[in-house]
Amino acid sequence: MLAHVRSPSREIHSRMQGGQFRSCIPSLSHTAEAMARAAVEQHERAHVDSSEAAAALARVLVAAGKIEEAHTVAATAVARAPDELNGQIAAADVELSEKHPELAIVRLNKAVAARLPAIVRLNKAVAARLPEVPHRFDAELLLARALSAAGKTQEAESRFRTLAAEARQKRFALVEKAALEKR
Questions:
Q1: pLDDT at residue 73 in the model
Q2: Does 139 score more than 70 pLDDT?
Q3: pTM above 0.85?
Q4: If DSSP codes are grouped into helix, strand and coil, which group holds residue 126?
Q5: 37 pLDDT exceeds 80?
Q6: What pLDDT does 148 receive?
Q7: 66 phi and psi, to 5 degrees?
Q8: What is the per-residue DSSP string for the chain?
Q9: Which CATH homologous superfamily contains domain 9-182?
């Protein structure tokens, strides 16, 4: 019997919650980058049509300050699977780090709005829709940051408060903490 093994991209995604890589020590950042690169290589070898690994690598590169490379990797992630939320989140993270919060806001609003009907349906059908919740929380947190950077303080504050309350309710402590700290 085989034990369940987390893919490197899933491991990176779980560590990305709450922006954990943004303030980490250089060696951890290097380890995250190495894991993300390994996940991308693994996905390419297996011909996986997902933006998950490339999106994780792009976000790690943003956290490490490698914005130009992150831009290229995020664009690849979006091109590979344009309908996947994690690729759109990574591209918005790059846009925000490039001081283009307006672009990030537009991208995230489209990405989140496209999933809203599905989220509502899933919420009614399954109370704990954990695979979708982390991506949505990630997108909402990044959108609130982008709104704040664009000078839309009231809208950003409202999103941070709403996100913190929902994260508290669903027991996503790191997301709640990140939303409360950004306010």
A1: 95
A2: yes
A3: no
A4: coil
A5: yes
A6: 83
A7: -95, 70
A8: -PPP---HHHHHHHHHGGGGGGG--HHHHHHHHHHHHHHHHHHHHTT---SHHHHHHHHHHHHTT-HHHHHHHHHHHHHH-TT-HHHHHHHHHHHHHTT-HHHHHHHHHHHHHHHHHHHHHHHHH-S--TTHHHHHHHHHHHHHHHHHHTT-HHHHHHHHHHHHHHHHHTT-HHHHHHHHHH-
A9: Tetratricopeptide repeat domain (1.25.40.10)
What phi, psi does 170 have (nearest 5°)? Answer: -90, 5
Tokens of 54: 């490339």
For residues 10 and 116, what is the distance between their CA atoms, to the nearest angstrom? Answer: 23
Burial class (CB in 10 A: 0-12, 13-18, 19+), 121: exposed
- Looking at the chain, the whole-number percentage of residues with pLDDT higher than 90 is 33
Q: Which residue has the tokens 């999106």?
A: 55
Give the model confidence (pLDDT) of 43-62 as tens digits. 989 988 888 999 999 999 99
